[in-house]
Automatic annotation (TrEMBL):
Protein name as annotated: ABC transporter permease
Pfam family, one: ABC2_membrane_4
Keywords noted in UniProt: Membrane, Transmembrane, Transmembrane helix
Chain ranges passing through the membrane: 20-41, 61-84, 105-130, 150-172, 179-201, 221-244
């Protein structure tokens, strides 16, 4: 087994019964429950006559997820995974092992991205359940089909574009032991992204905290997706090299 594979295996074992793993499922569930509550309470008011009501339901989930909750979850996941070793001061033990340093840090990146992928898989599954509940409550929902292409394309592209944000937040979370530093940067980025939501799509595609929402858009999503994937990979390589060269974490 390679050094990277052993490091990933160790990180996976650390995640068992942790808050980070539970939140990977709870975060998308919260979005769907929130949207479901709106449609249960005001179903007739939010639906347009003559249209598939599930389309607006799915679009609302994708918008909430990509614009607010996915950036916040990526920020929180990076901070929680880094705190597993920060709080226990495990770095001295890890660096004393017969393994190079960069696989240790690379495993953190991979595990955090895996948590985001897990959430992105859970989101459509919860949406299916919510639509079935709405079919039981609202007669006009019976026979409607969930717009799979809209939902899966939006969630999938936003997950890929989120790699740049994940890389930045992982770097901050591993560089500083304080939980407040990466969390503060992440919240500031999310708030500024909401303020910039009316900015040109090209700018939103390049800004790490709005790139997931831009990638979910049907207009020019490839810019945000390509920038998020390539930029995230480049940042992760630079960050792993810089962190491995430090004497102490």
């Amino acid at each position: 087994m390679s050094e990277l594979a052993r490091a990933i295996s160790a990180e996976s074992l650390k995640l068992k019964r942790t808050l980070a793993l539970r939140l990977a499922v709870i975060a998308p569930l919260f979005i769907v429950v929130l949207q479901l509550g709106v449609y249960l309470a005001r179903g007739e008011a939010v639906e347009r006559a003559g249209t598939n009501p599930a389309t607006g339901f799915a679009r609302g989930i994708v918008t909430l997820w990509t614009l607010v909750f996915l950036p916040f979850w990526a920020t929180l996941a990076a901070s929680l995974c880094a705190s597993l070793d920060h709080n226990g001061n495990h770095w001295d033990h890890l660096f004393a092992l017969p393994i190079r340093r960069w696989p240790v840090f690379a495993a953190k990146w991979i595990v955090v991205f895996a948590l985001v992928v897990l959430s992105s898989i859970c989101l459509p599954l919860f949406a299916i359940t919510a639509v079935e509940i709405l079919k039981l409550v609202h007669a006009e929902w019976r026979g409607v089909a969930l717009p799979w292409r809209l939902l899966l394309n939006g969630v999938g592209r936003s997950c890929g574009a989120c790699l740049l944000l994940i890389s930045l937040q992982c770097w901050l979370s591993l560089r500083w032991r304080s939980f407040l530093v990466p969390l503060g940067v992440g919240i500031a980025g999310i708030m500024s992204g909401i303020i910039l939501i009316s900015a040109p799509l090209r700018l939103l595609s390049l800004y790490p905290w709005t790139a997931p929402a831009a990638a979910a858009s049907p207009h020019q999503p490839l810019l945000a997706l390509g920038w998020g994937l390539c930029g995230g990979l480049a940042i992760s390589l630079i960050a792993c090299w810089q962190l491995a060269a430090r004497e102490h974490i």
